[in-house]
Each structure stands twice: as C-alpha cells, then as structure tokens.
Amino acid sequence: MAQNIYDNPEFHAGYSTLGRQVHGLDGAAEWPEMRALLPEVSGARVLDLGCGFGWFARWAAERGAHSVLGVDVSSKMLERAQEDTEAASVRYQQLDLDEFVPASSSFDVAFSSLAFHYVRDLDRLLSATAGSLAAGGALVFSVEHPIYSAPSTQAFETSQAGDRVWPLDNYLAEGERVTSWFVDGVVKRHRTVATYVNAVINAGFVLDRMVEFGASTEQAQAHPERADDVHRPWFLLLKATRSGAAR
C-alpha cells in the first residue's frame, strides 16, 4: 500500500499553496509538454491515475471526453476535486494505485501526473493500465526525473571551481527515498530511466516519445531563483500506445 501523505493536515496545507494547485494546469510548468503528448480526448473514455484536485479530469471533460474517472488515495484531495467539479461526465474514486484493478478495455486514454513515483509495484500498475485500455489507447504520464530522485542529498552544491553542480549518487540503487517536503518522512520510489522505459514496454505498450523536462535558459533568466534548474531535469514525461490497431 502506498503512503497516503496527502491526507496529513500539515502536508496538505503546504501542498495546497503550490502554484500548480492554486492555478491548476496553467501553474504546472510542464503542462504544455504534457498536453502536446496527449491524443484527442473528445469522445474518449479517460482515466486519471492520481487525479489529486481533479484539474486534468475537468480539463478533459471541458474538451468533450465521453467520461472521466479520477482515482486517488487521498480523501482530502478527492473532497476538493468533487467540490470543484460540475461535469456529470466526471466521477472520482478513492483507491490506492497499488491496488487499482480497472475493467478490461474500459478506457481510451490514461493519464498520470507525478504519481507513479509513489507506487510500489509499477509493473503491476502498468500491466493493469494496459489491460484497461482499448487497442491503440494512449498512456501519458510524468514522474520526478530519476536524476532528481536518485541523490541521497537533493540539493545543489558549489564546486571548487565555483560552478553549481547537482551531485549524483545512488542512481543505480533503486528503491525508497525518504525526504522532507512540507513534512518529514515523505516516501517516494527512485527508478532509473531504463526501468521506467522497460516497464512500459513490458506492460504491452509501444513507446512513442520521451521528454526530459526542465527549466529553459529563458525561464531561468526570467526567474533568477531558477538559475540552478537549467543543470538538471525536473520531470520525465512518457507517451506510449497500447499494442494493437488504433481505435
């Protein structure tokens, strides 16, 4: 079972102040890249894995999705998602992604934003997701980039030459990473890029595209506090298609 840190009151209060939670998808720097990976959702049956406050679920509904199911382990997240959602085509379900077993061929598009790095058994979830998609269905997801999640100390350092560097260690040592983020003891799981890619392929998907998303030079110039972020990616984005004829 995944850790349900999002129902911790102190964590929830801090998390709710993030730009992506205040402003929704427009507050997520990687959203334009994620949107570019998505297929047409009009008329599609959409699955949102780790839906949080329901920002993507509502976006899909507004663009004509036939139905949207948002799944999340957090009751606090789902309470707000339900309060903010008016579309009858959207429904939410409280479930641990490590235990989620969707019905066969019940969706056309599966989406997940920054949730899979909490999942213990990614192979199982990806296989279940593949089985839930119609032939030709698409999976688009993002995770913390493994270069970001690997180090024992996730912080920039200054080299003897005066350069800012991101110290990379433990990259090949996959497994739990316990960090402090709003509260102590937040549990995530580090996997290599190869592990994510091979897990997608082994689940029966064809990998379409991979994006290593980070701050651009222009963004760093516009936001000096992000100057370090041009040196390593934030997120890994993947798009894959379930093997079979397109729908």
Which descriptors apply to this entry?
247 residues; alpha/beta; Rossmann fold; 7-stranded mixed β-sheet; two-stranded antiparallel ribbon
In short:
This protein is α/β, with parallel strands linked by helices and 247 residues long. The chain is built from nine helices and eleven strands.
Mind explaining what this structure looks like?
This protein is of the alpha/beta class and 247 residues long. The protein has a single domain, classed as 3-Layer(aba) Sandwich (Rossmann fold), CATH 3.40.50.150. It is 27% helix and 29% strand. It is built from nine helices and eleven strands. The strands form three sheets. Strands 3-2-1-4-5-11-10 form a seven-stranded mixed sheet, sandwiched between helices. It has a two-stranded antiparallel ribbon with strand order 6-7. β8 and β9 form a beta hairpin. The radius of gyration is 18 Å and the shape is globular. The two termini are 34 Å apart. The mean pLDDT is 92.
SSE layout and pairings?
Elements: H1 9-15, H2 19-22, H3 31-37, E1 45-49, H4 55-62, E2 67-72, H5 75-84, E3 90-94, E4 107-113, H6 122-132, E5 133-144, H7 146-149, E6 157-158, E7 164-165, E8 175-181, E9 183-190, H8 193-202, E10 205-213, H9 217-222, E11 235-242
